[in-house]
Design brief:
alpha+beta; 3 helices; 28% helix
Length: 96
C-alpha cells in the first residue's frame, strides 16, 4: 500500500533516508521534525511511504509539484528521495 507519511513514520523515514547516503542511521532530531512539518504543510508536496503487508514501512518518496510558465502554465512534478529498505530491495516496491 502507498500512503501519505505521518509523524509516526518519521523515525523509519530517517533510517531509510540514511540508506541513500550509506550513512549510519541517526536518531530522529528536532530538525527532522521541523522539516517533516514543513513538508506536510506544503500543499505542493507529498511525502509518501510504501507499506509491506500493510504494516511495515519499507520505502519512501517525495513528490513535489512545481509551478511552470511553459506549456501554457502547466505544472510539472519532481520525484525525489526515493529509497526502498535494503532488506527488501528487488521486490519491485520502488516501481510502485
Amino acid at each position: 500500500m502507498i500512503r501519505d507519511a505521518t509523524l509516526d513514520d518519521l523515525p523509519t523515514l530517517v533510517r531509510l533516508l540514511a540508506q541513500l547516503n550509506e550513512e549510519p542511521a541517526s536518531e530522529c532530531t528536532p530538525q527532522h521534525r521541523a522539516a517533516f512539518a514543513a513538508v506536510a504543510a506544503d500543499p505542493r508536496q507529498r511525502l509518501l511511504v510504501v507499506e509491506q503487508a500493510g504494516v511495515v514501512v519499507v520505502g519512501t518518496a517525495v513528490l513535489a509539484i512545481v509551478p511552470n510558465l511553459s506549456h501554457n502554465g502547466s505544472p510539472y512534478a519532481l520525484i525525489e528521495n526515493v529509497v526502498v529498505d535494503e532488506a527488501v530491495r528487488g521486490q519491485r516496491h520502488g516501481e510502485r
